[in-house]
């Protein structure tokens, strides 16, 4: 089977370390430069790019496609970042509403629990499983590059763990902007 490569999108407008990004945040000027630079080091053998539909990932993918002549095979919401509840957009630890911190305290024991309009850990885990199935089917035609988001990529690489453990481990895994790794879990359920 062909390789599946993972890349975190480039830097986006309004980025603050440890804060939840707004889903519609576009790339910053720095991010566009990072994406152009990353195009020079795309792994050999990739035949196409797939990406999240969120602007920062989609824009990164479009820049890479333009600079490498690789086709942008698909932009799909299945590869989007974990949907944090809108009450934490632009906020970081120490400024979270009580409702969110209460959810954080319960999410490990209740991974199906949602906070407001956010996505549950169980839903993210299931979406990543479906994403892996889709990637595996698409990679039969050659190696792929998935451009997505730190938490989603982290969960995708930990699908053998429970939803809560995969999420918590992913949250501690610091993907740098445009960092690229090969996916070593190649089948759903591993």
UniProtKB/TrEMBL annotation:
Pfam family membership, one: His_Phos_1
Gene Ontology terms for molecular function: phosphatase activity
Superkingdom, natural source: Bacteria
Signal sequence coordinates: none
UniProt-annotated stretches for the region Disordered: 15-41
InterPro entries, per the entry: His_Pase_superF_clade-1, His_PPase_superfam, PGM_Phosphatase
PANTHER family in alphabetical order: BROAD-SPECIFICITY PHOSPHATASE YOR283W-RELATED
Organism field: Kitasatospora acidiphila
Record's protein name: Histidine phosphatase family protein
